[in-house]
Amino acid sequence: MSSSDGDLVVRAQAGDRSALASLVTRHVGSVRACVLAVLGPTSDLDDLVQEALVRGVDGLSSLRDPDRFGPWLRGIARHLSVDRIRRKPPAMAHLDAVPEPAAPILEPPEDHADLWQAIGTLSETLREALHLFYVARLGYAEIGERLGITTAAVNQRLTRARSQLRERLAPLEERVGDEGVEDAR
Could you give the 3-state DSSP secondary structure of residue 185? Predict the structure, then answer.
């Protein structure tokens, strides 16, 4: 049986390095998802994830509610990402850069810049849910646990994200379809 975040935080605050390592391992994927949701694919994604984790570890003694470690850490990641945008405007997002997945799973092909651009237009909450589902390959229950929402809310976010992506990508499909018809003539 795995320990809860609260138990691990209390142990880590008392100096237990294995508890601290477990916390970092457990939350690195959701921290990555937060940064990716705010910034999109960017060359300094790993640096921002690492900085958020370091700040979380350094500030662990200031955490008032140990059971809220995950949301607290993701809040640090969001703040760092927003600060990054303020320091360097959104042109820093390289749409053709492929982020390193949280786990060794699918990597989006580099030629899907239109998809990344459409994903970038979604709200942060929708992008985060998409990333956790499709890149981190988490189930609805685990996504809900990491985001502090119900599985029904996870389903709603994913459904809304897919619907909005279909709407945004439909003109592209029509354009590609029209080109294919012209080529066939």
Answer: coil
Architecture of the 5-184 domain? Orthogonal Bundle (1.10)
In a 13 Å sphere around the CA of 166, the CA atoms on its Cβ side amount to 6
pTM of the model: 0.55
Q: Shortest CA distance to 121 belongs to which of 156, 95, 155?
A: 95
Mean pLDDT of the chain: 78
Distance CA 124, CA 112 (A): 20
pLDDT digits (tens, 9 = 90+) for 68-88: 898 899 889 988 888 887 776
Concatenated DSSP letters for 49-111?
HHHHHHHHHHTGGG-S-GGGHHHHHHHHHHHHHHHHHHHS-GGG--TTPPPPPSSSS----TT
Which residues, in sequence order, are CB contacts of 81 under 8 Å at separation 6+? Answer: 34, 35, 38, 39, 48
For 92-101, the pLDDT digits (tens) are 344 444 444 4
* Arithmetic mean of pLDDT, 22-37: 87
